[in-house]
Known about the structure:
- The chain is mainly α.
- The chain has 2 domains: 2-435, no CATH class; 438-510, no CATH class.
- It is 84% helix and 0% strand.
Amino acid sequence: MLKNFLTVGGWTMLSRVLGLVRDQLLAAFMGAGALQDAYQVAFRLPNMFRRLFGEGAFNAAFVPLFSALLTKEGKEEAQLFARRALGVMLVWLVFLCVLGEIFMPQVLKVIAPGFLQSGERYALAVSLSRITFPYLVLICAAALLAGVLNGLHRFGVASAAYLAFNVVGIAAILLASPFLPNVAYAAAWGVTASGVAQLGLLFWACERAHFGLTPLWPALTPRIRLLLRRMVPGLIGSGVGQINLTIDTIIGTLLPAGSVSLMYFADRINQLPLGVLGAAAGTTLLPVLTRHLAAGETDAAHAAQNRSIEYVLLLTLPAVAGLLVLAGPIMIVLFGHGSFTEHDALLSAQSLRAYAVGLPAFVMVKVLSPAFFARGDTRTPVYIGIGVLLLNFLLNLLFMKPLVHMGPPLASSLAACINVAVLALLLRQKNALLLAPETLGGIGRVGLGAAVMAILLVGLETLLPLPAHFILRLLWLTVMVGVGGMFYAAMLHILGVMDLAEVLAALRSRLNRKRR
């Protein structure tokens, strides 16, 4: 499982790096203002539906059913089920897309009420949203194909396909902008074009795997009915994080112009560790848990859950420490260029710290939710999700005035912490989460190592303040991250979490095998 975890994480990290380049271009060309706000709202809408219908509820219900069919009844039955599911998804999403295109002005009044104060920003957001909305059809279908490939244990191919989003997006910003009214239009067309590229790549990958997925005309067979029954309650249960971010966006439109942009760029940095670790853990854990439970291997399922928790916290906790200490320099170095000023970067860093507080919780939701989904339980997370949504909304209202652009991120972080606590409590009551003493001890030692690393970084930042020149700033940030990483690794060695000699020997052995 670790190999699959690292494969998905590696491809996702490469995608995130390219995404960072894309975001830097958006920041440099549009800054933090009305134009950026309008584009971010236009992108948030199809992205929310993608997470809910594609990577969220549909996948949470589809992958366990598909994996169980593949294990128990063979390839042909699993393939037939996947083709029928794809047909149902496409008909539903095309219908939803047509409705969205027709009623987009009304939709924007709901998700961006603050834009109504500025007619120009509202009109631009409507136009851009109509361009980006077809992306939800393309990417949700792509998510189903990726779920099939993951069920076939072809994790690398499915993860690599998502690189197309950022590659096409970068190309659109750089090459199409001169031919369109502004950069926002180029970026919006890039979103939809990337959906075409991703879906095409995944269809090709399925053909290469001898698992063609030509969609079948929708038919409500017993298995499709079961899929829909499991999917409907999961719309909220598996998509709480995205719905919370959408609430953040709604509240952000009511704040001063540019607030949506400040929160977006902060969230993009927060999404680097969250997307890599959360996606890797959730993607690889769900089919593994489903397979163990279908075979009656309860102890193996518990062991896989514990390993996932250990892996993600081993990498998440130092990321939190680093983001809390270095948020300002990170935002200045990465985004403080062109139209996005250094002052904008420092304001965005405040949002980043608020998001970072909840980073372990955001990731742990991805690890704990599969324990419900693998057992066919998509109802329990939905009940928890409703409560978390209400809590997030109330916290947003409480924080928006005094904390401005820091309020929505902090509300999401606190809501995520409550979400994890309730998920863990219910799993313990169902005997679906049994944390071994060595797992708990390892988490404590990892937390101590991350805390000591944070103290070291604070001391270094005090002694060596951020330089003025960009090249020196980039070098400074690289050195700080490198020193922090090495010190954290040394702390893990000292605390007995891992043996550096064994890790280095394993890396050398892996490199030698690749050379052969």
